[in-house]
Amino acid sequence: MTEQFKLAIIGAGPIGLACALAAQKAGIDYVILEKGCLVNSLYNYPANMTFFSTSERLEIGGVPFVSVNNKPTRAEALEYYRRVTVAHHLNVRLFETVNKIEQKDNLFSIETSKKHYIVHQIIIAIGFYDLPYTINVPGENLPKVTHYYKDPHHYAFQKVLIVGAQNSAADAALETWRKGAEVTMVIRKQEIGQRVKYWVRPDIVNRIEEGSIKAYYNSSIVAIHPHTVELDTPEGPVTIENDWVIAMTGYQPNLGFLEKIGIQLSDDAQRKPQFNPDTHESNVKGIYLAGVICGGMDTHALFIENSREHAEKIMASIVG
Length: 320
Ligand SMILES: Cc1cc2nc3c(=O)[nH]c(=O)nc-3n(C[C@H](O)[C@H](O)[C@H](O)COP(=O)(O)OP(=O)(O)OC[C@H]3O[C@@H](n4cnc5c(N)ncnc54)[C@H](O)[C@@H]3O)c2cc1C
Description:
By secondary structure, this protein is α/β, with parallel strands linked by helices. It contains 8 helices and 17 strands.
């Protein structure tokens, strides 16, 4: 069945929702298409995660985000974005993946996992949390290996290997250790990342120095087996007993999705999608980019705090 709208917003993350609120305010007929649940990326963040932003800096559409904590939790953020969606009756289609976009004269044809749409403009706000960086070692596909850390209870009294040295790796190591897991970290460089949240870094460094958490610095994984993992360390090869591997190796944006519809990327390592910074319109007329996807491979450049303004810029251009 084909439906027609003026505007399709791909991705119901915080920035996709901000675009929908701005479209609604401008009286633009729109639909949001989301492949997972509402704010799917935030839903897949660690269960006990705390944002580094204060709540007002995560607000969209001028809707207050009330939190008793200085920095809100994941659970509070999920509830906030859900309540915004309900209160504003946002037109969101969940568990509907956009698979194909084609331009036909001044219109766009969108094929999803459920329907077909014809629209005049498209906003792509697909984030960067769906494609983890793989370790590319034998055994990475074993069921005991995950790139998405959720709840520490699952790892209680287990032998856990954490891969990585940034925020998510530090959180996963500390939380699982505090639930009674025997935690080992394998870190490519010689220290815990300097970007680790200032209230977390001393904790993880002290746990390692006191020997509660074992860390192999300047090391990497050679192979993963059902009950062991082989490591390459400065002291030579090491084999450790292991039940679970939590690979906090980061995520990359789905730039292939953009290239398929003709959006050009910069030819440097950042592979930044090309768009007009004042309107966020890409080199494909009628297709706009919003949110962290605008940063290309530099997934730390943009986040909720500094991407919210994309919505107003885009709507000013569309209305204009
Ligand atoms: C652990 C962690 C902590 C963070 N803390 C903060 C913080 O404190 N403050 C802050 O400002 N930022 C923070 N961020 C960053 C922030 O979460 C992201 O910048 C934010 O999610 C970006 O919003 P977005 O709407 O651009 O993308 P996303 O939230 O990633 O949303 C993109 C949506 O698009 C959907 N999608 C993708 N492809 C398709 C498709 N083909 N069809 C349909 N739907 C699709 C996805 O399912 C997803 O729901 C944190 C990130 C992490 C990982």
